[in-house]
């Protein structure tokens, strides 16, 4: 797993390729080529102007190219490369007139040292190099046999004092910029991950909502069809007219189920459409719901009947629908139900009670995640609650759904 992470890690992580794509052991040769070009061309120009006091033999050119060649390892050994480049340039400077072109490799090495976050080695190295150069080519020039033309003057002293300061500053600024870019990449990647996680979570919630809606629709109507089919089979031979009524009820329930399934799918396909294709489900269809329930139901509405938030209205309808489905499935023949809807000032209270031979079992549901559990989940998603349990001679489902006026549920 670690190897996979390294290979396909984010762009700011080093060594994100393995095998032959692993990070190179040396830096890009471009800087070394540029430095070598300036060193050789500068030496040739100086020689043409009698600024070099020794013949440009092979070992002299080798001395000129030591620093540029060492730059290939500046990423792995920044301090060592800087020391080597400075030593080679000072060695050549002992028999050549002072020129900036001999110091390109040390300048690149010093910039690299600061850019890699080594400010103190850069400062100390620059100061030590400055002192060493002037000690060799000025203070001890006579003892070391340095030609007079190779000795730096005041102008060179000022230039060599200011240039390292500028290089260290630019290297540090480059490091800060690189770190800022890395941080920006991390933030961008984190935002992308958060966005994908949010999309994944929304998709998961949408699937759960669709499953819950389809369960409510199909569970209600299929249980009604099951009851009516049993009645039809029982009365088919003895009372064909009543069997016909049962078949008519089955046809009506199946048509209603198909219509509601289409409504759910339409909502899922076009969640943001301004007008739904099917009438919204809510307590305004409570009378229709109880009429199709297939058992005697009494309904009582109290309080200030008012428009509810769409999500509360739909949840109330679905919870009542699921409660009636449970009554049909578990309460047995002869069961009756009552529905009480109470509009409180800041909430909606529902009470669905049933009585029958097996009323105490009306709240149970063998399917995990359905029945009362589904009602409770739907209510809790809106900040409400569901209480269910047996009461004297029956089973009661009590629901409380908040109805804030500030639209905080949406």
Automatic annotation (TrEMBL):
Its EC number is 2.7.13.3. The keyword Transmembrane applies. The keyword ATP-binding applies. Keywords: ATP-binding, Coiled coil, Kinase, Membrane, Nucleotide-binding, Phosphoprotein, Transferase, Transmembrane, Transmembrane helix, Two-component regulatory system. Residues 206-271 form the Signal transduction histidine kinase subgroup 3 dimerisation and phosphoacceptor domain. It catalyses: ATP + protein L-histidine = ADP + protein N-phospho-L-histidine. The chain crosses the membrane at residues 26-44, 56-73, 80-100, 120-141, 153-173. This is histidine kinase. It comes from Paractinoplanes tereljensis.
């Amino acid at each position: 797993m670690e190897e996979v992470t390294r290979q396909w890690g984010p762009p700011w992580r080093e060594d994100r390729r393995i095998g032959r794509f692993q990070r190179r052991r040396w830096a890009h040769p471009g800087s070394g080529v540029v430095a070598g070009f300036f060193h050789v061309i500068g030496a040739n120009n100086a020689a043409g102007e009698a600024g070099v006091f020794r013949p440009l033999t092979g070992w002299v050119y080798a001395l000129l190219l030591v620093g540029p060649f060492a730059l290939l390892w500046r990423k792995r050994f920044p301090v060592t490369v800087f020391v080597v480049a400075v030593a080679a340039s000072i060695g050549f400077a002992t028999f050549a007139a002072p020129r900036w072109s001999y110091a390109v490799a040390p300048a690149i090495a010093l910039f690299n040292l600061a850019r890699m976050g080594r400010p103190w080695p850069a400062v100390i190295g620059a100061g030590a190099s400055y002192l060493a150069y002037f000690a060799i080519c000025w203070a001890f020039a006579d003892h070391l046999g340095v030609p007079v033309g190779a000795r730096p003057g005041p102008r060179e002293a000022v230039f060599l004092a200011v240039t390292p300061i500028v290089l260290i500053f630019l290297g540090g600024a480059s490091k800060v910029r690189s770190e800022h870019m890395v941080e920006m990449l991390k933030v961008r990647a984190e935002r992308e991950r958060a966005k994908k996680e949010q999309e994944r979570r929304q998709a998961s919630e949408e699937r759960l909502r669709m499953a819950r809606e389809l369960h409510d629709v199909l569970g209600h109507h299929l249980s009604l069809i099951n009851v009516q089919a049993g009645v039809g089979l029982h009365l088919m031979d003895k009372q064909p007219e009543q069997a016909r009524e049962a078949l008519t009820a089955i046809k009506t329930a199946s048509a209603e189920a198909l219509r509601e399934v289409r409504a759910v799918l339409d909502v899922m396909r076009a969640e943001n459409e301004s007008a739904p294709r099917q009438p919204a489900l809510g307590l305004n269809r409570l009378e229709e719901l109880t009429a199709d329930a297939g058992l005697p139901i009494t309904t009582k509405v109290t309080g200030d009947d008012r428009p509810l938030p769409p999500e509360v209205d739909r949840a109330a309808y679905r919870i009542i629908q699921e409660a009636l489905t449970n009554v049909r499935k578990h309460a047995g023949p002869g069961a009756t139900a009552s529905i009480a809807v109470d509009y409180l000032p800041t909430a909606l209270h529902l009470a669905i009670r049933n009585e029958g031979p097996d009323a105490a079992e009306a709240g149970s549901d063998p399917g995990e995640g359905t029945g009362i559990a589904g009602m409770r989940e739907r209510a809790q998603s809106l900040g409400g609650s569901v209480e269910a349990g047996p009461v004297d001679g029956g089973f009661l489902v009590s629901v409380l759904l908040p109805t804030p006026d500030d639209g905080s549920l949406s």
